[in-house]
C-alpha cells in the first residue's frame, strides 16, 4: 500500500499536473485537490504547486491563503501533516504563517527562468531525507516575486536552528537574503522553496536531470515507513 500525495489547484496554478506526475513517478498515489473543497480526501501529504494563483493580486499567495482548502491544510500541518510549497506554494505558506518571512519582487525587477544550482543545507526534513547535507543539485527556477526576506532575528533563528533547507549556488537569482532558496518549519514537516523540483524528475524534461525527484521519494519513504 502506497502513500497518497495531494496537489492543490487554485485559479492560476500552473504546475499542478507536473507535481502530480512527480508524485506518481516516485511511486505515490497522486490526488488532485480543489481550492474550494475543505476535504483533503484522506491524503497523507500535500503539495502547493507553482503558478500565479489569483493572478498574484494584492501579493503573491495573499488571496489563496484564504481559500477553503487552506483552512484544513493549516490545521493538519500544525498537527504534523507534511506540506511542500513550491514557488507560489512557498509564497502561500508564508502568507499562511506556516513558514516565517515573506516573498518580494526580484531585486532586478524582472521575471527569471533558468536552471539553478542549489546546495542542500538540511537533509533531515520530511521532504529532503533522500538528499545529503552539502549535496549540490540543479533544478529549474522561474519567478517574479522570489526574493526571500525576513528580519535579522528571524534569519538568525533559521540559521541557528538549521531551518535553512536550500541555498542558491553560483548566483543569487533574485536577491534573497543570505542566498536562501528554501526553508523548513521547526518540526520539519513543512518545507517551502522557490525552485521547481517537479520539473527535474525525468531526463527528457527540465534540466535533463532527476535532481528534483528526491523530494517525492523522501516523503514517500517517510510515509510508507511511518
UniProtKB/TrEMBL annotation:
Keyword Endoplasmic reticulum: no
One annotated Gene Ontology cellular component of this protein: cytoplasm
Active site as annotated: 87 (nucleophile), 196, 198
A Pfam family: GATase_5
Reactions catalysed: L-glutamine + H2O = L-glutamate + NH4(+); N(2)-formyl-N(1)-(5-phospho-beta-D-ribosyl)glycinamide + L-glutamine + ATP + H2O = 2-formamido-N(1)-(5-O-phospho-beta-D-ribosyl)acetamidine + L-glutamate + ADP + phosphate + H(+)
Organism domain of life: Bacteria
Repressor among keywords: no
GO MF, one annotated term: glutaminase activity
SUPFAM superfamilies assigned to the protein according to its UniProt record, in alphabetical order: Class I glutamine amidotransferase-like
Subcellular location field: Cytoplasm
BP terms from Gene Ontology: 'de novo' IMP biosynthetic process
Pathway annotation from the record: Purine metabolism; IMP biosynthesis via de novo pathway; 5-amino-1-(5-phospho-D-ribosyl)imidazole from N(2)-formyl-N(1)-(5-phospho-D-ribosyl)glycinamide: step 1/2
EC number of the protein: 6.3.5.3, 3.5.1.2
Gene3D superfamilies recorded: 3.40.50.880
Keywords: ATP-binding, Cytoplasm, Glutamine amidotransferase, Hydrolase, Ligase, Nucleotide-binding, Purine biosynthesis
CDD domains, per the entry: GATase1_FGAR_AT
InterPro entries: Class_I_gatase-like, PRibForGlyAmidine_synth_PurQ
Subunit structure: Part of the FGAM synthase complex composed of 1 PurL, 1 PurQ and 2 PurS subunits.
Its job: Part of the phosphoribosylformylglycinamidine synthase complex involved in the purines biosynthetic pathway. Catalyzes the ATP-dependent conversion of formylglycinamide ribonucleotide (FGAR) and glutamine to yield formylglycinamidine ribonucleotide (FGAM) and glutamate. The FGAM synthase complex is composed of three subunits. PurQ produces an ammonia molecule by converting glutamine to glutamate. PurL transfers the ammonia molecule to FGAR to form FGAM in an ATP-dependent manner.
PANTHER family (UniProt xref): PHOSPHORIBOSYLFORMYLGLYCINAMIDINE SYNTHASE SUBUNIT PURQ (PTHR47552:SF1)
The protein's name: Phosphoribosylformylglycinamidine synthase subunit PurQ
Gene that this sequence comes from: purQ
Amino acid at each position: 500500500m502506497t502513500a497518497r500525495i495531494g496537489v492543490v489547484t487554485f485559479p492560476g496554478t500552473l504546475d499542478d499536473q507536473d507535481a502530480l506526475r512527480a508524485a506518481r513517478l516516485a511511486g505515490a498515489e497522486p490526488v488532485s485537490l480543489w481550492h474550494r473543497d475543505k476535504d483533503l480526501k484522506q491524503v497523507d501529504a500535500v503539495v502547493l504547486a507553482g503558478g500565479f494563483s489569483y493572478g498574484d493580486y494584492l501579493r503573491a499567495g495573499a488571496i489563496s491563503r484564504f481559500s477553503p482548502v487552506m483552512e484544513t491544510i493549516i490545521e493538519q500541518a500544525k498537527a504534523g501533516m507534511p506540506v511542500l510549497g513550491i514557488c507560489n506554494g512557498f509564497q502561500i505558506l508564508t502568507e499562511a504563517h506556516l513558514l516565517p518571512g515573506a516573498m518580494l519582487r526580484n531585486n532586478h525587477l524582472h521575471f527569471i527562468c533558468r536552471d539553478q544550482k542549489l546546495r542542500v543545507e538540511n537533509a533531515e526534513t520530511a521532504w529532503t531525507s533522500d538528499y545529503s547535507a552539502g549535496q549540490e543539485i540543479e533544478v529549474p527556477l522561474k519567478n517574479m516575486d522570489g526574493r526571500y526576506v525576513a528580519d535579522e532575528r528571524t534569519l538568525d533563528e533559521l540559521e541557528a536552528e538549521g531551518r535553512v533547507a536550500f541555498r542558491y549556488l553560483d548566483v543569487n537569482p533574485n536577491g534573497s537574503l543570505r542566498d536562501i532558496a528554501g526553508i523548513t518549519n521547526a518540526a520539519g514537516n513543512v518545507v517551502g522553496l522557490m525552485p521547481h523540483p517537479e520539473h527535474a524528475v525525468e531526463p527528457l524534461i527540465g534540466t535533463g536531470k532527476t535532481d528534483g525527484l528526491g523530494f517525492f521519494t523522501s516523503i514517500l519513504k517517510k510515509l510508507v515507513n511511518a
